[in-house]
């Protein structure tokens, strides 16, 4: 009887140790190495390449977003309702003409198009574009940079980590191909001019990194507003010195929040939150709804 108990206890402890080993070996998708990420993206490579060429977005940036969003799971769905490889929200899918969010080709095409739109909006700033992809461009405009949300900041860090993994030690660009650091010709020793050039490059990198965290200026607030909102909404400035820029949509007869969402591209939940609307609130013709905000 004692032998049987000892044998059963040994098997149970072995099972526990194997489970613990499996848990310890688990790595989240954004920590995968170069080879594993490329192998997981292989079946979608054709759609990624086509979207990259069509919209002018770096292939590795597309793969990095997919890695952080869904880990290349085509049927992925979040608790907020985002679907597919690039986790498109229903409003974003409708905005870019997607009929089936679980179609890899449609999902990658719309997600890449949205990325390009965000990159153009923020003048090629990848950190701002990724923050807008995660939290919405309205939040980036409101806070003048990456919003102070733990989830959004972690998301940007993860995507940029995967992006650097795919690029190796090369300089990265959201639009074009990567370019390597300058090397000395013929293996000769670096001269003083070489060190000065490298020092200037490092200073420029630090300067651009510091600028990415600075708030939007008044000029950038003017440039950040989408073109379709310029003629559909009315601008109001408030706050000390008029540093808060807001755009309001004037509700027409027979319109509701769904009509406003389709016209402005702002999600209905964002409209409710910005205007402090509750489920019991009602809207009427002539009411002004806040749809965009920027703090200069």
Automatic annotation (TrEMBL):
PROSITE patterns given in the database record: LYSM (PS51782)
Pfam families, alphabetized: LysM (PF01476), SLT (PF01464)
Alphabetical list of InterPro entries matching this protein: LysM (IPR018392), LysM_dom_sf (IPR036779), Lysozyme-like_dom_sf (IPR023346), Transglycosylase_SLT_dom_1 (IPR008258)
Gene3D superfamilies associated with the record: 1.10.530.10, LysM domain
Ranges of residues in domain LysM: 247-291
Protein family according to the UniProt entry: Belongs to the transglycosylase Slt family.
Protein name stated in the entry: LysM domain-containing protein
